[in-house]
Amino acid sequence: MMSLPKLSSYETRGTLPGNPACPACPHNIGLKIVGKVLGDRAVVVVPAGCTSIISGVWPKAGIDLPILHVPFASAGAVASGLKAAYQMKGEDAVVVVWSGDGGAADIGFATLSGAAIRNEDIIVIVSDNEAYMNTGIQASGTTPWKALTTTSPIHGKTEEKKDLALIMLMHKIPYVATASIAYPLDFAQKINRAAEIRGFKFIHLHSPCPPGWRFEGGKTVEIGKLAVETGAWILWEYKDGKLEISPTSRKYIDRNNRKPIKEYLKLQGRFKHLKEDDIKFIKEKIDNNWNYLLHLIETLNKP
Ligand SMILES: Cc1ncc(C[n+]2csc(CCOP(=O)(O)OP(=O)(O)O)c2C)c(N)n1
Ligand SMILES: [Mg+2]
To answer: Does the predicted TM-score (pTM) go above 0.90?
Structure first.
């Protein structure tokens, strides 16, 4: 068992230069923020995915955080056991599961849900690039409707995007939030708050992927921002029994402030086949998501 340095020794950690991530990879951005906030306190459990590659092959290392590589379906269970082992040794560690969407929403969902129900003292961060990217862009449960993938290559995905953060909220855990790699400060604050809370914490991180979504690498952050500005990705946070739209997204509660969804979609090759009617339908879905969330806020926050 690794032994952790004391909480006082903060250090900037995260991904290292020259690692094998694709240029402008959102996981790289997200992991840097995790490292910056948690420093030496973090121990990271990584199920299979692009991050397994980013971390490199021994004796090289692409990520300077202690990492445990685990099979897909076990991440929630391994993290629970790891935290218990640290507790038994009297050592404090922030045990973080850093998972892809396929790993969390589909293949590893059973142990994720189990750990949440047991209210294990861990943070699960799902870096959602909306497909199984590491094996060649197969559609996952969180791939959006109509997105082209290698398993939905002509008309796009026929099913809806699974709302994993709301599913986790329904587990009645103490902390759930959505975040985006395009808003590092918001994400950092959420990691920080999560680390202060005992019990199960879940952060759903929106992570635009250049090769998977078919856009130029330089646009990762621009596309992440557009997702929020068009209202397609809503930043929210549940803590202390209250659900709130995060400050960055509050402006977009009023649908007149949202940018046209076309601006987000047109930059991505995976949506290049969309017709005007599809775009109209996507806009309606976004309005419905907002209405649903606002209604939930009203219901949950009732005194
Ligand atoms: C049980 C199991 N099934 C399939 C695979 C092959 N596999 C490795 S990475 C990966 C894709 C993971 O997708 P996701 O969790 O979304 O992470 P990403 O690569 O997109 O970051 C798959 C299917 C595996 N390693 N183990
Ligand atoms: Mg993925």
So the answer is: yes
Which residue among 134, 161, 162, 209 is best mutated to probe the pocket of ligand 1, counting the most ligand atoms within 8 A of its Cβ? 134
How far does the centroid of ligand 2 lie from the alpha carbon of residue 103, in Å? 8
Tokens standing for residue 31: 């992991």
> Is 55's pLDDT higher than 70?
yes
What sections of the chain are H helices per DSSP? Answer: 26-38, 50-54, 75-88, 101, 109-117, 164-169, 184-196, 210-213, 220-229, 247-250, 261-265, 276-300
Q: How far apart are CA 241 and CA 285, in angstroms?
A: 27
Domain parsing of the chain, residue ranges: 26-300
What is the residue with the minimal CA distance to atom 13 of ligand 1? 132
What is the C-alpha to C-alpha distance for residues 105 and 128, in angstroms, rounded to an integer? 9
Closest to 130 in 3D by CA, of 27, 245, 283, 15: 27
User: By C-alpha distance, which of 137, 40, 38, 117 is closest to 77?
Assistant: 117
Ligand 1 atom showing the smallest separation from residue 51 Cα: 21
The residue type found at 42 is A
pLDDT tens column, 219-251:
999 999 999 999 999 999 999 999 999 999 999
Ligand 1 site, CB within 6 A: 48-51, 72, 100-103, 107, 129, 132-135, 140
Ligand 1 closest atom vs CA 140: 16
Q: What are the C-alpha distances in Å from 72 to residues 21, 33, 229?
A: 20, 23, 33
CA–CA dist 224, 209 (Å, integer): 10
CA dihedral 173, 130, 283, 145 (to 10 degrees): -110
pLDDT digits (tens, 9 = 90+) for 16-42: 888 999 999 999 999 999 999 998 889
Domain 26-300 classified CATH 3.40.50.970?
yes
Beta bridge partners of 224: none
To test ligand 1's pocket by mutation, which of 97, 132, 204 has the most ligand atoms within 8 angstroms of CB? 132
